[in-house]
Amino acid sequence: MSVEVNNESGTPVDEKALADLGRFVLDALRIDPLAEVSVLLVDADTMAALHQQWMDLPGPTDVMAFPMDAADGPAERRDPSAPPGTDDGAEAMLGDVVLCPSVAADQAASAGHSTEAELHLLCTHGILHLLGYDHGEPDEERQMFELQAQLVGEWARISKRGPIRAPLPGTGGEVRDTAGGRRA
């Protein structure tokens, strides 16, 4: 799996760790090993411009996902109206995940974990969006946030990076798992 990380944010970030996380998430979800994901880190002004252009919302946001080859995700997540994916064995670009480290830093302080942990959570969130997961409806949110928490919890355990306090399902992303993925 190819995960390319490009940091244009001006903020130092462990790019290798983000690439390793991306490969971990794709592998855990059994995505085709030829799949590619691009992760771009940008400054707040760039993110605000993207947020306005694509979501018609002001100000910077934490993560945006731009899917490309939706048919290459898990079968149950495929949009039947989407164009056909690659079926010739060639590498498939799943899409781009755009992260804003300055917004992540603010959120990390509120969540009670490191900026790196927040970036790992957001990168996982963005990859799930590339694969067709969403959180617009309560059932979708529950499914996506439970999977997200499972993935970042396992990532924190095996990479020894953590805790990562994922948003709890049913809270609109506002309440975090204060156990950092650990359950009693």
Q: What's the short version?
A:
With 184 residues, the chain is α/β, with parallel strands linked by helices.
Note the topology.
Blueprint: E1 2-7, H1 15-28, E2 35-41, H2 44-55, E3 63-67, E4 92-99, H3 101-111, H4 115-130, H5 138-159
Helix pairs in contact: 1-4, 3-4, 4-5
Structure explained in plain terms:
This protein has helices at residues 15-28, 44-55, 101-111, 115-130, 138-159; strands at residues 2-7, 35-41, 63-67, 92-99. Residues 70-90 have low confidence and may be disordered. By secondary structure, the protein is α/β, with parallel strands linked by helices. The chain has a four-stranded mixed beta sheet with strand order 1-2-4-3, sandwiched between helices.
How is the largest sheet built, in terms of strand order?
A: 1-2-4-3
What is the overall number of helices?
5
Q: What percentage of the residues does DSSP assign to strands (E)? A: 5-15%
Described by the principal axes of the CA atoms, the overall outline is: globular
What fraction, in percent, of the residue positions are helical? Answer: 40-55%
Query: In angstroms, what separates the terminal alpha carbons?
Result: 34 Å
SS content category: alpha/beta
- H and E string: EHEHEEHHH
- Low-confidence runs: 70-90
Give the C-alpha Rg: 16 Å
- Main beta sheet: strand number and arrangement? 4 strands, mixed
Count the strands? 4
* Overall mean confidence score, pLDDT: 85
